[in-house]
Amino acid sequence: MALVNVKKKEVQIKIVYYGPGRGGKTTNLEYINHTYRDQIKSEMVSLKTQDDRTLFFDFLPFDVGRIKGFKVIIQLYTVPGQVKYNATRRLVLKGVDGIVFVADIQRFQRKKNIESLNQLYENLKTHNLDLFSMPLVMQYNKIDLLKQGVEVIPTKTLQQDLNSVLRVPAFEASALGGGNVMKTLKKIISMTLASIQDQLF
Amino acid sequence: MFSHEQLNAIDKVIKTHLIDSGVENVIYIDLAGNAITQQDNGNQTLDYMAFAALAAGNFAAVDAMAKLIGESEFSLLFHKGTKSSIHFSKVTEDTILISMFSKTISLGLVRLKVSEAVAKINAICGA
Ligand SMILES: Nc1nc2c(ncn2[C@@H]2O[C@H](COP(=O)(O)OP(=O)(O)OP(=O)(O)O)[C@@H](O)[C@H]2O)c(=O)[nH]1
Ligand SMILES: [Mg+2]
Q: How far apart are CA A12 and CA B59, in angstroms?
């Protein structure tokens, strides 16, 4: 739930990048941090293992201007994707306002994507949240691998696997090169703001 | 959601009980990692947004560990450094108060002042 500070006239919104291990969640935040470094006042915080896997979360906050007089601060988080870290993933989801699901389009990750999405649903339930009423954007990441001849899951199949019931906006992306990273971000921000405006203002 | 009056009252409690007693920096956060309010003695340059996210994560992790060994919670959470130390205290189910202080003030005094402040903030939140 977004934190609204009526005294400072400020709203803090939490958006979490969720998905299977090595899918590219951290890479999304690194690209955003790198590209918008000048406009971001805070450092990106990454709690990671020695081999650069997310251990707890990445964190990147930035301002996106004012809405109805309130300064809006977006706080991006990633979860650790490795299967063994589910307890940690659940902690990071506390207070979430919007989610980007980063799927890995490599063929061998097909099952992992589905399992991760199912677990997201379960994890949200432990916070009394429902995935179906949560602002959500799908990102099918590593589309650049298609050109390199790597076996990937066709977007149509990904849509069937992950998005046939949810029916949320989806983007093919390449987080490493920045392809559609900002489009994904803008979409989730606008969806989250819309849902929060309904709740708050 | 805190009202304007509640936030003013909380700020006042933090100022009179903690900052005026020598605590350098106080952040009141929720467990989602948002800073609700922050106050310092004027000499601090902390990235308090990053700090709030890390503190909430740290607190949540310790809390989850407590549950695993059958404790409902650890009442004292304290990190001691050579120059500065950090004290965490749960206020409501959803919020924690974090106090940073240097060697010029003892842990005992900080604990006393924090518990006074926590009781007052609790009363404000319940009001
Ligand atoms: N080819 C390609 N590789 C990518 C892309 N995005 C990320 N990667 C690579 O995939 C690997 C994992 O990326 P991360 O961003 O660390 O993945 P993560 O989802 O944060 O992983 P966990 O922290 O373990 O959950 C890294 O080697 C990245 O360079 C992409 O768009 N294309
Ligand atoms: Mg990561």
A: 20
* Any atom of ligand 1 within 6 Å of the Cβ of A53: yes
Q: How many CB atoms are located within 10 Å of the residue A6 CB?
A: 15
A148 secondary structure, DSSP code: T
Please determine, for residue A198, whether its predicted confidence score (pLDDT) is greater than 90.
no
Cβ distance of A4 and B1 shorter than 8 Å: yes
Contact between B33 and A42 using a beta-carbon 8 Å cutoff: no
The total number of structural domains that make up chain A: 1
Give chain A positions within 8 Å (CB) of B39: none
- Residue A91 in contact with partner chain B when CB distance is under 8 A: yes
CA-closest candidate to residue B42, choices B57, B22, B56, B68? B22
ipTM above 0.95, yes or no: no
Contact present, A73 and A10 (Cβ < 8 Å): yes
> Is A82 a pocket residue for ligand 1 (Cβ < 6 Å)?
yes
Q: What is the CATH number of the domain that holds A126?
A: 3.40.50.300
Q: What's B4-122's CATH class? A: alpha beta
**DSSP count for chain A of H helices, then E strands:** 6, 8
- The whole-chain average pLDDT of chain A stands at 94
| pTM of this structure | 0.89
Question: Looking at beta carbons, which residues of chain B come within 8 Å of A1?
Answer: 32
In total, the C-beta contacts within 8 angstroms joining chain A to chain B are: 71
* Structural domain that includes position A131: 3-200
Which of A151-155, B71-75, B122-126 shows the highest mean pLDDT? A151-155
Q: CB A15: neighbour CB atoms within 10 A? A: 21
Can you tell me the distance from the alpha carbon of A187 to that of A176, in angstroms, rounded to the nearest whole number? 19
C-beta atoms surrounding A16 within 10 Å: 25
